[in-house]
Design a protein that fits this description.
By secondary structure, the chain is mainly alpha-helical. The protein has 11 helices and no strands.
Length: 252
């Protein structure tokens, strides 16, 4: 795992994750395909998660005052339903890595499509409803549990509601931090009580620790560029890379 090529790919993933948490919500979509080029199976979400959590800590510290808690609270139950579906999936496939790669690949392609639709579509702000919170919450819960790829789902929901950039970053920061922390004990339990191996290993955690400097550069860089970064051009590049990585996962 600790080869020069893997460290470069991992550091690139960490850098983009850092930028996504402090300036470009959803850009972290590319992190999972990059990590999937290094590890396989359950190790893909297991290796990605600590990198996300490291960046989450900075995001919630800096942008928590902009969070819209009135939009997050109604999603708690539906996100839990998505978690349960994700846990069931991992329990069923066990040690078979191919189904995990296929589901992650399909999830990322769907999220990339949603993000593309968000970029090109122009809609009037909608009013939050319990039904919308349930749909987006359960979908986001499943995709984040299986592929750490809930960004486009949440972004689409928040854009649909007409949130400004600061409110989007603050609200998404707390959403990601909460769901990522909640995934840790579930991943540990699944690794201990079901077939398929561990999500976290000493090697994967040591590899994650080596990526922390790249995450720090990303979060501070994103904070500095928050009002200057050309979001549209950057996200188009991220979507292309994400789709390419997802297609690679889908190829036999």
């Amino acid at each position: 795992m600790f080869t020069a090529g893997n460290l470069i790919l991992g550091s690139l993933a960490g850098l983009i994750v850092g930028l996504s948490k402090t300036a470009l919500p959803g850009a972290g979509l590319v992190a999972t395909p990059l990590i999937a080029a290094i590890v396989t199976g359950r190790a893909i979400p297991g290796t990605t998660l600590p990198v996300l959590l490291a960046a989450d800590l900075f995001a919630v510290t800096w942008y928590s005052r902009h969070a819209r808690w009135d939009l997050l609270r109604p999603m708690i139950i539906s996100v839990s339903v998505g978690f349960a579906a994700g846990a069931t999936f991992f329990s069923i496939v066990g040690s078979a890595t191919r189904p995990i790669e296929v589901v992650i690949g399909v999830s990322i392609l769907l999220m990339a499509a949603i993000q593309t639709w968000r970029l090109v579509g122009r809609q009037l702000p909608a009013t939050p409803t319990p039904l919308a919170a349930s749909v987006y919450g359960s979908t986001g819960g499943f995709t984040t549990f299986v592929a750490n790829a809930a960004g486009p789902v949440l972004n689409t929901y928040l854009v649909r509601l007409g949130l400004g950039k600061q409110e989007m970053v603050g609200t998404s920061a707390w959403f990601y931090f909460a769901v990522n922390v909640a995934k840790v004990p579930v991943y540990v339990a699944l690794g201990a009580w079901s077939d398929g191996g561990q999500f976290f290993t000493r090697t994967s955690l040591a590899f994650d620790a080596a990526l922390i400097p790249a995450v720090v550069v990303g979060v501070f860089g994103g904070r500095a560029l928050f009002h200057k970064l050309p979001e549209r051009a950057f996200l188009i590049g991220v979507l292309v890379l994400s789709a390419a990585g997802a297609i690679k996962l889908l190829l036999p």
